[in-house]
User: Fold this.
Amino acid sequence: MKAQTVAAHRRSTPSPIRHFALVAGIGCVGLAGACSGASQELKETTPKETQIAPEVDAAKEEVTAVQNFEIECLDGLNAAKKALPALLSLGGVRDQENFLIPYNLLLVDVERSAATASLMNAVHPDEAIRSAAQKCEQETSSFITELSLHRGLFDAFATLDTKNFDTEAKRLVERSLRDYRRAGVDKDEATRIRLMKIDESMVKLGQEFGKNIVDDVRQIEVAAADLLKGLPEDYIRAHAPNADGKIIITTEYPDLIPFLRYAEDDGLRKELYIANKNRAGESNEKTLREILTLRAEKATILGYANWADYVTEDKMMKSGKKASEFINRVVKTADKRSKRDYKELLAWKKKNMDRRAKSVEAWQSSFIENKVKSESYSFDTQEVRPYFKYEEVQKGLLDVTSKMYGIEYKPAADVELWHEDVSAYEVMQGGKKIGRIFLDMHPRDGKYGHAAQFTYRSGVAGVQAPEGVLVCNFPNPRTSEGAALMEHAQVTTMFHEFGHLMHHVLGGQRKWIQQSGVATEWDFVEAPSQMFEEWAWDHEILSGFAKHHKTGQVIPKEMVERMRRADTFGVGIRTIRQMVYASVSLEFHQADPTTLDMGKKVRSLTAKLSPFPFVEGTKFHSSFGHLNGYSAIYYTYMWSMVIAKDLFTPFDKNGLMNEEWTHKYRDTVLGAGGTKDAAELVSAFLGRDFNYEAFEKYLRK
Ligand SMILES: [Zn+2]
Assistant:
């Protein structure tokens, strides 16, 4: 629905080595060590009789739990390492039976370690296990790097006779060769060593870039409580003056977001905005330049004009030039709507703040947008909350997907869970188990703080069923004082993440792990989830579970309509803002990093695209974390939104629960996994190539 919010809860970062399809994963089933501590079942079976003092006993148990976890976590990696030599020393003709299938199983093993480590690092309640998981993750990822640059494996793939292979096996071989070449495996040894060094340095610099952002929390001082006017009461209560009579407001989200939205004092909002846009300022300009330089070097070694061309090549986008054209096209489409939104903001400012105002400043946009929404669209986000009781929403979501895809959820009986708040279900289709899902939906100390879908096992036909987990932070019915009520934005997030989960499970019935589930082009991955958000905005769907927690009254249609109208206000400026980010991301990676003036680039792109003037004294790019993970391809969110809007058209026309279409979507798009190019899957579903019509209509409304 909204690009700027979905950006915050994307699924776990795809592996930099997409070839191996090893995305962050979840673990714990059968991992006694990993599951101890929180699991009820385990607590009950832990031997109680002992002669030693309880605290010594606890310490010993802790050590054993961590050791057990390490062994279990590295099990897959060790198996893969053991299997590799046999694969390489194979004499005679290599074929599917003696090479491709064992290779597939080797990757299944590697994923077992990578996924377990990644999930446990994100969710395990015990810190010692989390750090053991980090270690396991590092070991696994260096093995993955080794595989991706392995000359012997490349040669083995290159000599495969694919004549009698079916389309999927042929595609697998082609993709593997392409990805080996993209890694630089066919270069001479000195170059390969340099490439490996570059990758290593980039990982370290990337971590440094992220750490600089997280560590640099800034703050402003507010002289007196009455300057907090406009902010909610609980916010004011939580920000009492210190011993010197000063109130401290930091750039951390829970402080920052409400302050920019509600604080009446324009000067303070400006001060906080500038403080925030200076985080990691000097240090990250330096780190970023080093990253950009290494990326440019790698692209040059591999024969590309720049990093943008390199990184887009295996995406739907294919080149930096096309990405640039796409951004321009979106800007052009959103321009009129953005100007209209901006005019409304300016009119409000003239009427209420400054009669002679000529522009709206960036630090005023959230504040004024909120005012316009409540005055002109008479919608308050608080009024729908009583209709979204957590348990009802979860049940509703399971019911909806169950009907859409002809599946059933059966509580999983014999699964050890890493925390009492986690639940697990077997996914059944026609009486047969096709996968398993885990729902870890509530916050706790030390847990991953956003919302994401983690892969635990990629489905491989005949080998293992897909297993996936949602890791979210929604209100907890077990600990909440009253009913656990959700914001509608959280409901949308939950649908979004569930979209990834369904893709993972329904697409996880393929033969090759590299074509399983969400292993499609990176810039397509968000489309199914963005589309599924539409279900959370539909009155008919909502009325199935959104009932007032006290009266039982179904959410009124009129309220949902008002909510939708309010949501569409500002979509023009939000889209343009996203395109400013996308341009920074792309153009930083097209420029020569030695001469790039980052500040100047951001300033000129803002002037060119945004209706809001550039704010002097800011260094937005220094704390734009996605410059590390996404590098040049921040455009992906808007790109998959274009496709999501088009994918939705048959449902919009025929009904969201129309079985003919939900089943067709299940089989042609989700079920196909990565067996074909995403564009082909979309065509197969729509009966034509995808286009911009629906997206343009949405922006021009
Ligand atoms: Zn997502």
